[in-house]
Structure formats: structure tokens, C-alpha cells
Specification:
By secondary structure, the protein is mainly α. The chain is built from six helices and no strands. It has one domain.
Length: about 130
């Protein structure tokens, strides 16, 4: 997809949206955003493990961001949707209001919508195609 077409199609706009979401979250994770550390004990891990994992999560999120923008493989988009759903769901699991989950629906719905636009895979090898 040419750069000029990104702003003319639903697919292009979704690719930009997923890119921005995962790039921003990836940068925060690389910085070990302190307000994210309490999510780890909520699922049985210590905050010190969170401190170790967040930079790895950040690198993963940044990779997903660039893949979604430049070469959105279906397997990457399904990962982005599952990961976005899980990280949104962590908020109420950690004791935050359900609205903190609702507010983050776009984090998983945008990659899911992009996947739907590309078409659901019919064969296993289709997961690794755009």
C-alpha cells in the first residue's frame, strides 16, 4: 500500500491506528511505566518480574506496530487482538473499574477489524499471509 493511500482506505487507517496503539504502548513498556507494575501481582507475578518483562513486552509491541503498518500478517493481527484484549482485561482484574476495560476496546477491536478486512484464513498457511 502506498503511503498516500493510507489515509484513503479503511485498511490504511486501521493500520495506522494499530501502529500508533502498539508503538505507544511499546515505548511505555520499554520505559517500565510504573503504573503498569501493579498488573503483575494481579495475575500472580511479582512487580520485580514485571520490571524485567516490561522491556521485552515493549520490544514485542513495537515489532507488532511496525508489522501492522508495513506488512500486516494475519497471525500478527490475531496476536495484537488477543494481546490488546488481555491487557485491557487486566485493568478490572487488578481492581480498576470495568470502564478501564471498555475504554481500551479499540486496542483489540482495531486489529480484529483489520483482520476481518483481510479475510479470515481458510488454511493454516494463510495465517502467515497479508
Amino acid at each position: 500500500m502506498e503511503v498516500k493511500n493510507y489515509f484513503k482506505t479503511g485498511e490504511g487507517l486501521l493500520r495506522i491506528g494499530v501502529f500508533g496503539t502498539f508503538l505507544g504502548h511499546g515505548i511505555f513498556a520499554l520505559q517500565v511505566k510504573q503504573s503498569w507494575l501493579p498488573y503483575f501481582p494481579a495475575i500472580g507475578l511479582s512487580e520485580s518480574i514485571g520490571t524485567t518483562l516490561l522491556p521485552l513486552i515493549g520490544m514485542m509491541d513495537i515489532a507488532v506496530a511496525f508489522m501492522a503498518l508495513l506488512y500486516p500478517l494475519r497471525v500478527v493481527l490475531v496476536w495484537a487482538a488477543v494481546w490488546g484484549f488481555w491487557t485491557a482485561l487486566l485493568r478490572p482484574i487488578a481492581g480498576q473499574p470495568i470502564w478501564d476495560f471498555v475504554e481500551r476496546w479499540a486496542n483489540w477491536a482495531a486489529p480484529l477489524a483489520l483482520l476481518a478486512l483481510q479475510g479470515w484464513p481458510k488454511k493454516a498457511k494463510d495465517w502467515f499471509r497479508k
